[in-house]
Amino acid sequence: AMLAEGAAQVVGIDLKPELVMHARRRYALPNVRFEAMDCEAMGLAPGSFEAVVCDELIEHLSDYRAFMNEAQRVLAPGGVFVCATTNAGIGFTSADGSPMNRNHHREFGPRRFRRELEQRYHHVRLFSECLRPRTAKYVLHDRARWVERVLVGLGVKHKIPIGWRNFIRERMTGVKVQDLIDEGFEIVEGARSDSLYLIGMGIKA
Q1: What is the pLDDT of residues 148-185, one digit of tens each?
Q2: Residues 59, 182: Cα–Cα separation, whole Å
């Protein structure tokens, strides 16, 4: 719906039909279409889009390269690929280097992220979603991160209601979630090690 504010037509896809139905009800607009579809094998015509946008997706995919190849396939020449993903630099990893987040198959640092983009696109640029002071205190607080790491390692983090998790973190850090919303964030060009998310952009030849 946000993309539709500046685009003639938008197609949103998700693997789960129930989420697609929710999106159709909640974001019904004349220039938006929602379809149940596997992003690793899209039923979309080659070269039919001017842009492909994905946000916090590739870390969740068992075969992220299949999706990235599909995105390249459906883009027209000169089309833009925009992809945001969590920064591996501030994630939690197991002893073997794999993400501790049970929903992530892999996480990307700037070097690996850029390499994947440059294999498919020209004029690749990386951006960082930077943490402002209160957000940095909330996210990177040593004791709060230790507790979060324990919960992630035990596999119980997402079994605890988010309201309770936010309350505990607010008490530990002295920063309220509303403070983060009020503070916002800044996106700057380049890859910063302390960024919460990395954003990559490339152009199809």
Answers
A1: 989 988 889 889 999 999 999 999 999 999 999 999 88
A2: 28
Torsion angle defined by CA atoms of residues 4, 36, 73 and 192, in that order, rounded to the nearest 10 degrees? 60
For residue 43, the 8-state DSSP code is -
- Which pLDDT band, with edges at 50, 70 and 90, does 37 fall under? very high
Single-letter amino acid, residue 155: G
Report strand pairing: 197-203 vs 122-130: antiparallel
Between the CA of residue 23 and those of 19, 27, 32, 83, what are the distances in Å?
Answer: 6, 5, 10, 21
Produce one character per residue of 155-184: b if its CB has 16 or more CB atoms within 10 Å, e if not: eebeeeeeeeeeeebbebbebbeebbeebe
- CA distances, 29 to each of 1, 13, 17, 130, 155 (Å): 7, 15, 18, 32, 39
Residue 172, φ and ψ in degrees, nearest 5: -75, -35
Q: If you write DSSP's letter for every residue of 81-121 in order, what string do you get?
A: EEEEEEBGGGS-B-TTS-BSSTT-S--B-HHHHHHHHHTT-
What are 87-141's pLDDT values in tens digits?
998 887 877 777 777 788 999 999 999 999 999 999 999 999 988 999 989 988 9
The pair of structure tokens assigned to 119 is: 């294999």
From CA 59, how far away is CA 166, in angstroms rounded? 23
Q: What is the pTM of this model?
A: 0.87
Tokens representing 6? Answer: 């500046």
